[in-house]
């Protein structure tokens, strides 16, 4: 079985405060995109044969180990992971890989296993990737409400700077906290092709760590993209293109400077019925 583990961007991310356990409470809009890593899953009699980086620490491997254990060891799986997404870029590649392994194994070995609970134990972004499409998220990303997003062309650019998530959260100061995102206004602006009134509270901390990221943002704006924003904890940025042709031209202009791809907001069509967590 072949599966596409798509990237995500955060159409705004607001840090509302810090929880007693040290994690940050956030409000964000997740948008799946149409490109990503490829995974090949094949049933084998027992165990996990894994081809990809990090061995047993890979989130895809850990997802398989968890699912097979919870399902009562119904059989094994061979997993080949072909990475296309840069790591530590805020595109959620590892989380997306893990979600596709969970969904794939549920198809190969159906069992009464709560995928959302397993997903959350693997990482805060993993539950979203079980749903795909678009979603409003709260908590640390686990309270999800699906959202319909206009299928706009976007360009993602990662400058080749790896920004580990804990490093960026570690740099957050009280003045980085902000109110909730104006969700209706953001959706309205997207639908009208206007500059969305969103922000990413992690841009301040990331820019303090790596001031050169400000130039990356300015360069994307200079190419005519709207709503240019860092995604998640960075270091990738995205922007909204006027058309597929505009997106293609931006990709050409940036292709020697880092990872650059065009995609469509909301991702490929996902069959409904995955359910959701209430906000
Ligand atoms: C920023 C976001 C936005 O979608 O995604 P990415 O950009 O990484 O894809 C997420 O909040 C990434 O959450 P998650 O994937 O769970 O982060 P992890 O790497 O597990 O967390 C690493 C560390 O970051 C801090 N952390 C993480 C999430 C959160 N809401 N508050 C935090 O303070 C914690 O110190 C944690 O130990
Ligand atoms: N399948 C995987 N793909 C990418 N990274 C993985 C994977 N499994 C574990 N990791 C670890 O998780 C970190 C975060 O990866 P990733 O999800 O791609 O970035 P981000 O959290 O910035 O969106 C990587 O730096 C790597 O150490």
TrEMBL record:
Start and end residues of each GHMP kinase C-terminal domain: 198-256
EC top class, as a word: transferase
Keywords annotated in UniProt: ATP-binding, Isoprene biosynthesis, Kinase, Nucleotide-binding, Transferase
GO MF annotations in UniProt: kinase activity
Protein's name according to its UniProt entry: 4-diphosphocytidyl-2-C-methyl-D-erythritol kinase
Keyword Nucleotide-binding: yes
Pfam families associated with the record: GHMP_kinases_C, GHMP_kinases_N
Naturally occurring in which organism (per UniProt): Thermus brockianus
Record's keyword annotation contains Kinase: yes
Binding site for ATP: 86-96
Gene3D superfamilies: 3.30.230.10, GHMP kinase, C-terminal domain
HAMAP family: IspE
Active site per UniProt: 8, 125
Reactions catalysed according to its record: 4-CDP-2-C-methyl-D-erythritol + ATP = 4-CDP-2-C-methyl-D-erythritol 2-phosphate + ADP + H(+)
Family listed: Belongs to the GHMP kinase family. IspE subfamily.
EC code(s) of this entry: 2.7.1.148
Pathway: Isoprenoid biosynthesis; isopentenyl diphosphate biosynthesis via DXP pathway; isopentenyl diphosphate from 1-deoxy-D-xylulose 5-phosphate: step 3/6
Superkingdom of source: Bacteria
The GHMP kinase N-terminal domain, residue ranges: 58-133
Functional summary from the UniProt entry: Catalyzes the phosphorylation of the position 2 hydroxy group of 4-diphosphocytidyl-2C-methyl-D-erythritol.
């Amino acid at each position: 079985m072949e599966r596409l583990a798509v990237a995500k961007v955060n159409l705004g991310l607001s840090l509302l405060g810090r929880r007693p356990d040290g994690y940050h409470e956030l409000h964000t809009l997740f948008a799946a995109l149409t490109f990503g890593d490829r995974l090949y899953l094949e049933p084998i009699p027992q165990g996990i044969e894994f081809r990809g980086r990090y061995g047993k620490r890979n989130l895809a491997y850990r997802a398989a180990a968890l699912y097979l254990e919870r399902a009562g060891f119904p059989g094994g799986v061979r997993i080949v992971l072909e990475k296309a997404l840069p790591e530590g870029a805020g595109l959620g590649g590892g989380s997306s890989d893990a979600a596709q392994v969970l969904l794939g194994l549920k198809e190969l070995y159906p069992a009464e296993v709560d995928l959302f609970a397993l997903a959350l134990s693997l990482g805060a972004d993993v539950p979203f990737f079980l749903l795909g499409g678009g979603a409003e998220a709260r908590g640390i990303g686990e309270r999800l409400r699906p959202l319909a997003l206009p299928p706009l062309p976007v360009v993602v650019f990662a400058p080749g700077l790896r920004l580990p998530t804990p490093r960026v959260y570690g740099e957050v100061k009280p003045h980085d906290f902000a109110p909730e995102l104006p969700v209706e206004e953001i959706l309205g602006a997207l639908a009208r092709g206007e500059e969305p009134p969103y922000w990413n509270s992690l841009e301040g901390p990331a820019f303090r760590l790596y001031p050169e990221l400000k130039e990356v943002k300015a360069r994307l704006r200079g190419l005519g993209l709207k709503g240019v924003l860092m995604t998640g904890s960075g270091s990738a940025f995205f922007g909204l293109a006027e058309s597929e042709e505009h997106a293609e031209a931006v990709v050409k202009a940036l292709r020697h400077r880092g990872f650059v791809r065009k995609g469509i907001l909301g991702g490929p069509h996902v069959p409904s019925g995955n359910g959701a967590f209430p906000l």
